[in-house]
Write a sequence for this structure.
């Protein structure tokens, strides 16, 4: 579901922040700290979501000027971090833990709670439909036209050119094979992530009453 209004924008930004474990910048001390020690990934994520909002919501003349400024900032952050991530590809709760090369093709639709590690690529001209809870480990490539179910984990260094991957699967190897059923990454990686998702879903319920 793309961002289509201010409520969506708030939810996406907050979902991205919560899943990554970042705290809200409220106190003067924390604001000064962020000026001195910028979190460039957080800046990238917020700029990405704002760009999606302005692109999707038919901006007026004033908003188009804001869009241009945001686009320039987004391009600069993308170069700095090594990210090539298009607009309107990822649902809420996108988690990028580290700087490093990440390339995503435009013909890609990914659900909520996706994790992208460094040196990863979702490539090729074919359309890709990927469900919720997608986990792309370091050095992995997903290519070709494919449908990927919910809660799929791609192992490190894998090359995935399968046309279909069932939900709750672990995919490893080059070329990749589906090895076994696997619990969602936010269950495997520790209780704190599941708690964060519960907070996101509570927030969603409160925003969309």
């Amino acid at each position: 579901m793309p961002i289509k209004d201010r409520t969506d924008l708030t939810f996406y930004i907050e979902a991205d922040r919560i899943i990554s474990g970042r705290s809200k910048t409220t106190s003067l001390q924390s604001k000064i700290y962020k000026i001195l020690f910028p979190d460039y990934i957080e800046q990238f994520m917020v700029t990405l979501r704002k760009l999606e909002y302005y692109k999707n919501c038919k901006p007026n003349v004033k908003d188009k000027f804001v869009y241009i400024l945001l686009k320039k900032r987004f391009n600069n952050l993308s170069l700095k971090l090594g990210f090539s991530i298009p607009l309107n590809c990822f649902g809420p709760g996108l988690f990028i833990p580290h700087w490093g090369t990440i390339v995503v093709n435009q013909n890609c639709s990914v659900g909520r709670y996706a994790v992208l590690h460094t040196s990863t690529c979702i490539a090729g001209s074919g359309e890709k439909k990927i469900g919720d809870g997608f986990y792309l480990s370091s050095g992995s490539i997903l290519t070709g036209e494919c449908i990927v179910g919910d809660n799929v984990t791609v192992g490190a260094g894998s090359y995935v050119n399968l046309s279909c991957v069932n939900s709750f699967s672990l995919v490893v190897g080059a070329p990749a094979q589906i090895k076994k059923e696997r619990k969602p990454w936010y269950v495997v990686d520790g209780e704190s992530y599941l708690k964060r998702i519960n907070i996101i879903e509570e927030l969603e319920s409160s925003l969309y009453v």
Observations:
- Helices lie at 6-19, 28-36, 40-56, 61-81, 185-188, 191-207.
